Amino acid sequence: MKTETKDFIDEQYIWSLLDANRELPAEEINGIIDRAKEARGLEPWEVAALIQTTDEELLQRIYATAREIKEKIYGRRMVFFAPLYISNHCVNGCVYCGYHSSNRDMHRRKLSMEEIAEEVRALEEMGHKRIALETGEHPKECPIEYVLEAMRTIYEVQEGNGNIRRINVNIAATTVDEYRKLKEAGIGTYVLFQETYHHETYRKMHPSGPKSNYLWHLTAMDRAMEAGIDDVGLGVLFGLYDFRFEVMGLMMHARHLEEVFGVGCHTISVPRLRPAEGVSLDNFPHLVSDQDFRKVIAVLRLAVPYTGMLLSTRERPGYRDELFALGISQISAGSCTGVGGYRQEPGERRECNTAQFVVEDERTPEQLIQSLCVSGYIPSYCTACYRSGRTGDRFMALAKTGEIGNVCQPNAILTFKEYLEDYASPETRELGEQTIQRHLELITSKPVRDKTVERLHLIEQGQRDLYF
Ligand code: SF4
Ligand code: SF4
Fold first, then answer.
1. Is residue 92 within 6 Å of ligand 1 at its C-beta?
2. Would the N or C end of the chain have less CB density within 10 A of its end CB?
3. Does residue 411 line the site of ligand 2, with CB under 6 A?
4. Mean pLDDT score across all residues of the chain
5. Cα(329) to centroid of ligand 2, in Å?
6. 136 CA closest ligand 1 atom index
7. What pairs with residue 80 in β-bridges?
8. CATH second-level architecture of 74-363?
9. Where are the domains positioned within the chain?
10. H or E segment at 320?
11. Residues 33-55: what's their mean pLDDT?
């Protein structure tokens, strides 16, 4: 297959869709919402119409439908992951990021393999099984060999019953050859945010470094897929440009991948612009309000029901919980966005707020788990699809039958049980056991439910890593 080199973000087309579908009559919007209820996704023009809706009554219907779809497909499960920053050396000049190359005050560091192992032990002690490996872009300080060695180290670290079972990787756009190496090293999802799909804004936001090449960045997923990585994660940094345009850009990107490779994106991340060291928000005229951001998440949920949606710790706790219900399926917990921030000596200050961006939700995973359980959710540490080869089109095929819930639900229960056995305080364990009992009842197939109960006993007897 030939690597894509064409720019498939046609701005004129996006604007024409937005213009033609602005302020449609309520009955047309209602028609789109009704179609969205079937959870088969939406056409670009329909997305253009919904994302421009401002009528409060219609917005409430959009939110209600997003909650319904979220509940139907993802139930009340929330998959946990943690970012792991291993190097903040960066040759790029992204104006919104604290790691940009001209930030001379930034303390630059790159973790040694021993330090990475220490960080992983700390993450495993929090119960994490899935991480997102993050680096800045620096050909000398952070070449692909360093990343591959880091991945090997991470997969090897076993602390008690802890192990990392899936490494998603977020590194700069690179060549097919290097993506192939990541594939061989056991990458989960390859994640790369386009940040903004708007060309002029992209140019302004990325004045220097290799990332300033829009087309190279845009076509990274094509090269990753060509190299055999079939789970890719898209993302926009909301606040750089008009959110309506960005949502359409995400649609165009996902469609493009679907057309060329037969499978769209596995996840979409929805970070929102936050303050960072050396970055003020005064120069960003497109910041997204809480109200509009709610709409972004709900409309994306309707548009691509089977694509996982990831939220970071950038959002404050109460609001973050509200967004969960609208469509978020994966969250980071106990995150530190500084390099080497998880493992500290007693009394040492966490480096989190001197990092890539400011973290607003500083709850520990345990606090977050308790609050999720109280709201009827079950935390999940599941990584089963990746490990049983259910990636790319195999994953989508299962997801679209609606049968995926019969796999995700028992896997959430089993992995949460592992967490309770290995890491939880007595208080959380009690709350967690009640949660498990409630969630067992939600498994619709009796044989699957019976098998899950059987496996819960095996976990109590010391077995680990059981999944469907
Ligand atoms: Fe470097 Fe990434 Fe920050 Fe840009 S966003 S400055 S590439 S770390
Ligand atoms: Fe994700 Fe697959 Fe686990 Fe469901 S079963 S939570 S889709 S890894």
1. yes
2. N
3. yes
4. 92
5. 10
6. 8
7. 331
8. Alpha-Beta Barrel (3.20)
9. 11-70, 74-363, 401-460
10. helix 317-326
11. 97
